[in-house]
Amino acid sequence: MGVDFAFLDSGTGGIPYMLSLKEKVPNASCVYLGDTAHFPYGQKTQKEVVAAASKAVELIQKKWNPKTLIVACNTISVTALDDLRARFPSLPIVGTVPAIKLAAKVTANKRVGLLATNATVRHPYSQKLIEDFASDCAVFKRGDPDLIDFIEKKLFTASRAERLAAVRPAVDYFAANDCDTIILGCTHFTHIADDIQAAAGEKVRVIDSREGVANQALRVFPGNQNCLQGQKGAKTDDGASSKEAALFDREKNCLQGQAFSQDQDAGGFKVSETFPQDKSFFFTAATSEQEGEYRAMCERFAIPFGGLV
Description:
Helix content: 40-55%
Largest sheet: 6 strands, parallel
Strand order of the largest sheet: 4-3-1-2-9-10
C-alpha cells in the first residue's frame, strides 16, 4: 500500500498543483516533498538536476510508495522527465510544462510572455513547445530567479505591497513588449498569480498548467483509466475542459476501489500509522527562518506541516 499521489518540487511551488488535484478527488491521499536541499533547480546543470531529482524520487518511493508521482516543477520536467521515467519504469510520472499551447489559443495580439526559471527558458524543450504550438506568436521569455527566491523564502510572511513590488520587474518587462498573455512557467509563480494579474491589469491574461496537470494525473492513475474513458469534452492538455466536473464522484469511487480499506475518519481511505497526514508538506533542508516560512505557508493553506525528512 502507498499514498495515491506524491508531489515533487524544489520547494513550495507545487502546492497549488496538489490543491488543484484535491479539489477534483478529495478522497485521494497526497503527500508533498520540497527538495529544498537542492533549491533552486533552475540554476543547475542538466546533470545536477537529474541527479538531485532522482535522489528525491528514491526518497519518495521509500517513504510513501506513491501510485502516481506529479513532478510539480517545470525545470525538472523539461530537463529530467525522460531520465526519471527510465529510472523508475513502474511509477507513473506526470510532468509540468509551460502552458504554451493554451497561451497560443487565448492570445489576441499573438504576443506572449513566458515567465520561468533560467533553465526552463533556455531549454530546447521549451523552444520545441513554442515551435509546435505557438509558431505564429512572438514569445518573450524571462528567467527570474530573484522572484522565485522571494516566493520560496519571503512570500508567506510578506505584505501585499512587498508582493506587488516583487512582481513588478517581470510585469513591466512583458508590458514593454506588449504581451497580452503571461505564462507562469515555474510552479512557484502560481502562488502569486493574483498579484501578477493585479499588477498586469485586466487586459492581460495570466495562465498556468494546473488544470491540465491534474487531469493528466487522474488519467494515468493505475486502475483509474477506465473511470476516465468516455468523458466527453474532457482533455488532458493545457486546455482541459471543466465538463469533467460532473464525473468527479465517479472518479472518486474508482479511487476508493483500489487497495485501500475504507475508513470514514480518514476521508474515505485508511492510512497506516507510518503514512503522513493527507497533503502533508515535507522538505529536505531548511534554516530556522525558512522553516518559519514553511510553517506560515502550511497555516495559510490549511495543510499539515510534515517537517524535515
